[in-house]
Amino acid sequence: MIPVILSGGSGSRLWPQSRREYPKQFLPLADPGHTMIQQTALRLAGLNTFAPIVVSNEHHRFIVAEQLNQIGVTPDAILLEPCGRNTAPAVTLAALHASRHHDDPLLLVLPADHVLADIPAFHQAVTTAAAAARRGLLVTFGIVPHSPETGFGYIHRGQAMADLEGVHSVGRFIEKPPLATAEAYLAEGGYYWNSGMFLFSANSFLAEIGRLNPDILRQCELALDGASGDRDFTWLDGEAFAQCPEDSIDYAVMEKTATAAVVPLDAGWSDVGSWQSLWDIQPKDRQGNVCQGEVITIDSHNCLLSGDKRLIAAVGVDDLVIVDSDDAVLVTRRDRSQDVKKVVASLEARGCSKHLVHRKVFRPWGHYDSIDAGDRFQVKRITVKPGEKLSLQMHHHRAEHWIVVRGTAKVTCGEKVLLLSENQSTYIPLGTAHRLENPGKVNLEIIEVQSGSYLGEDDIVRFDDSYGRIS
Description:
Layout: E1 2-7, H1 36-42, E2 53-57, H2 61-70, E3 77-81, H3 87-101, E4 106-111, E5 115-116, H4 119-133, E6 138-143, E7 154-160, E8 168-174, H5 179-188, E9 191-201, H6 202-212, H7 214-225, E10 228-230, E11 233-235, H8 238-242, H9 249-254, E12 260-265, E13 269-270, H10 275-281, E14 290-292, E15 295-298, E16 304-307, E17 312-315, E18 320-324, E19 329-333, H11 340-350, E20 360-363, E21 366-374, E22 377-384, E23 392-394, E24 398-406, E25 409-413, E26 416-420, E27 425-428, E28 434-437, E29 444-452, E30 461-464
């Protein structure tokens, strides 16, 4: 069995913590010790699996690799999508890759941003589904509902499968229902939430996607045939993949195939699709509040209060979500948390980057934090991990002044190479090729002061780069 971790979501309903360049699967939302993609990989322990295949946006490649490396997981492959085409092409790519390197393995398809509280129950459901998948069935996991949710699609189970205990055929897939219909489903029984998790053999899935949507299969084959390897990544052929039809695995295959089956799963599942759903699964104080960070509550009930830098004080408020980040504050009623995506749409329409990136931006060599900015200047705190280095680069519109506040810096500036320690500084003139390296054993931290007529991140001309980002 090979896990397939789908890591392409943007998590817009969890703004301002989740943003397009650093979405929710890379955040420790449900577990302060691990991010959501790390939790997804860790819950596989105890199952008999090979290393996972990860399908990711190419912009997230270094985040995926680093976060899995932090928990000791080395993926079998990280397949990089040059553009989003939904889950059907993503799973098809993984199935093609797996079938070319293994003898018709089972694929356990898992979104990177879900939570499961009861891991033994999850393992038992996987074992049950595996028996059905070995017979050529395409199995989906149906979440046993405990409330009449209107934000999920539903699966109505059909007949029990002979000789396959705990497995049913799929009666039908149902779009997100109105409340009255969801209440009726809950009362009647036999209806499950659609989890977006699947288990099937690679060849069985490829046969069905080829029969039902041959264009998807053909373009994915071309994209993988034209792929190139780069360090730990597989870069798909961009032109071929851009011509691939965009569709979900449900619409493309599961709703049309005669071999769909469902296994019920009752394991404390959540897709953490909104601040409301995060409030649902988190421990609460006696007043029903979820408090993350430094929080004071007085006469406040059933709120989610989250921040990691400033004190949040809530007085006399109920049923609110208050989320504080470095550059934005969200305040909404819990029952309106689905509408946070409208804020993201508004930011995008205004051309504001606060839906794209955080003030702290992660790079393969470390990260930088934009401390201050104004007319013709910008100040950043840059952290470079031991042994890492930035690209050899230059800028057309800005000069830079670097001050070392911790660690040791190796600086290339034109023809000169300098070694700077704490409290030492250097100046990088406009138009000069330069590079920053950390030759030491501890993090290097510098303050960078930029000055010039244009300070955008796209004013970088790279001549050499350890991570393949050549201009």
